[in-house]
Amino acid sequence: MRIRTVLNDLVPGALGVCDSHDHLFFRSAALPGQELDDEAAAIAEVRAFADAGGQAIVQWTPHGLNRRAAALPKISTRTGVAIVAATGLHRAEHYPEGYVDKVQDRLAELFVRELTVGIGDTPVRAGLIKVASGFHVLDAHAERVIRAAAEAHHATNAPIAVHHELGSAADAVLDLLVDRLDVHPAAVILGHLNRFPDHRLHRELAARGAWLAFDGPSRANHATDPRLTDCLAALIDAGYADRLLLGGDTTTARARAATGEGPGMPYLLTHLRPRISRHFGADVADAVFRTNPARAFATDWRQ
C-alpha cells in the first residue's frame, strides 16, 4: 500500500499529521476575483501549517481549476510537507463556458493519465480523483463524472473524494458508486458533511464503510464550527472515530492564515486538534489527523 504524493509514493505510516482536504491553488469561474494563484503565499501558508505540526496536505483541486502541478513538488521540497494532488472534475459551473463539453467524452482516460503518467505536461501524478454531487440529487453532469471516476478507480485503485454541495446527496453518491458501480466504500471520501449536520445520516454513511470528511472550518455562512463537535461526538459515540477526516478547504486568498484574514490551514492544528483532544481524547485526535488519513489515501496502485 502506498500514498501517491507529488514527489514520490509513501508508505502510509510516513504521511504524518494530515490536512485531509485543502487547496494551495484554485481558480473557479463561479468565484471571480477569489483565485488562489500566488506561489509565495502558498509556500507561506504551508510553512505556517508545518510550524503548527502539519506534515501532509491533500489538495482537492481537480482538472481545469489551476492546480499549478509544476509548482507543487517545489513547495513540498521547500517546506518538508507531503502534498497529494488530485485529478477529477468539479461541478460544471466552476468552468468557463464550453470547457466541460470539450472533455466530457474522455474523462476516464484523462483521469487515468493524470494518475499514472502526469498532470498536463508535468511528471507530477495525482493521488486521488475529485468529483462533485449536485444539490441533494445527482444531475446529468455529476453522474457522468462519477461514472468516469469509477472507471478510473477500477483501472488504478485511486481513492475518490467527493464535494457534496452544501453537504447533500452523500447517500445518492454511495448508491451510485458502491451499489451500482462496484467501488468499495473504503475508497470513497465524502466531503463537506459539516455543511449538512444530520447525525442520523452521518451514522448511516459511516455504517456503509465510507470516509466522512468535515472540512472548511470557521466559515460563517456554513454550519461548521458551531455544530462540528456535536457531529463528531455522534459518530465517535457510535463507534466511528476510525472513519473521520478533517480538512481546512481554503479556497480563497482572503481565507489564508499567512497572507489573509484566516483561519487558514494552521487552524486545524492550533484550534481544532486541541478541542478534539479535550473533548474526545488524544487517541481520537491522532486517529483523525494521522491514522485515518494514512488509511483513506493509501492504495495498492495498479499502474
TrEMBL record:
<keyword id="KW-0378">Hydrolase</keyword>
<feature type="binding site">
    <location>
        <position position="21"/>
    </location>
    <ligand>
        <name>Zn(2+) 1</name>
    </ligand>
</feature>
<keyword id="KW-0479">Metal-binding</keyword>
<feature type="binding site" description="via carbamate group">
    <location>
        <position position="130"/>
    </location>
    <ligand>
        <name>Zn(2+) 2</name>
    </ligand>
</feature>
<feature type="binding site">
    <location>
        <position position="163"/>
    </location>
    <ligand>
        <name>Zn(2+) 2</name>
    </ligand>
</feature>
<dbReference type="GO" id="GO:0008270">
    <property type="term" value="F:zinc ion binding"/>
</dbReference>
<feature type="modified residue" description="N6-carboxylysine">
    <location>
        <position position="130"/>
    </location>
</feature>
<dbReference type="GO" id="GO:0016787">
    <property type="term" value="F:hydrolase activity"/>
</dbReference>
<protein>
    <submittedName>
        <fullName>Phosphotriesterase-related protein</fullName>
    </submittedName>
</protein>
<feature type="binding site" description="via carbamate group">
    <location>
        <position position="130"/>
    </location>
    <ligand>
        <name>Zn(2+) 1</name>
    </ligand>
</feature>
<dbReference type="Pfam" id="PF02126">
    <property type="entry name" value="PTE"/>
</dbReference>
<feature type="binding site">
    <location>
        <position position="23"/>
    </location>
    <ligand>
        <name>Zn(2+) 1</name>
    </ligand>
</feature>
<comment type="similarity">
    <text>Belongs to the metallo-dependent hydrolases superfamily. Phosphotriesterase family.</text>
</comment>
<feature type="binding site">
    <location>
        <position position="249"/>
    </location>
    <ligand>
        <name>Zn(2+) 1</name>
    </ligand>
</feature>
<feature type="binding site">
    <location>
        <position position="192"/>
    </location>
    <ligand>
        <name>Zn(2+) 2</name>
    </ligand>
</feature>
<dbReference type="InterPro" id="IPR001559">
    <property type="entry name" value="Phosphotriesterase"/>
</dbReference>
<dbReference type="InterPro" id="IPR032466">
    <property type="entry name" value="Metal_Hydrolase"/>
</dbReference>
